[in-house]
Amino acid sequence: MDPNPSPTHRQPPRQPIDNPSTTLRQIISICADEAIGNVLDNRKSPSRKVNEIDNRGTNFYLALYWAEAMAARGEHAFAALAKQLEANEASIVDDLIKCQGKPVDLGGYYHPDPAKIEVAMRPSKTFNDILEAK
Q1: What is the mean pLDDT of residues 57-65?
Q2: CA–CA separation, 124 and 134 (whole Å)
Q3: Cα–Cα–Cα angle for 46, 96, 85, rounded to 5 degrees
Q4: What pTM, to 2 d.p., does this model score?
Q5: Which of 58, 43, 31, 33 is closest to 1 using CA atoms?
């Protein structure tokens, strides 16, 4: 395995699913495992530094890699999602990085306002629109 994979590096499917008795639950689980592996292999874990990907960016990459794995397994409902996420990757990551470094009002510490949290945690309109369309 390449110790310094390129940003578009994707691991091949780790476990073949050609057993007809494989359930959708098993496929989802195997694809989630692959997606997590790709997040780790491609160093898309959250950084502690401002202007690098944080938890929001990691969740974007998890969604991207999971959709790609599901589409590769023949779950065609995920193919369009994977294509849209990949096509808009630069824009989404830019949105997720540009929102960092400024104080955010969550409406309280112990009892934050859910609407304010949603605005802070979902800063990419492009990503939100893609997810809400599915």
Answers
A1: 96
A2: 16
A3: 95
A4: 0.82
A5: 43
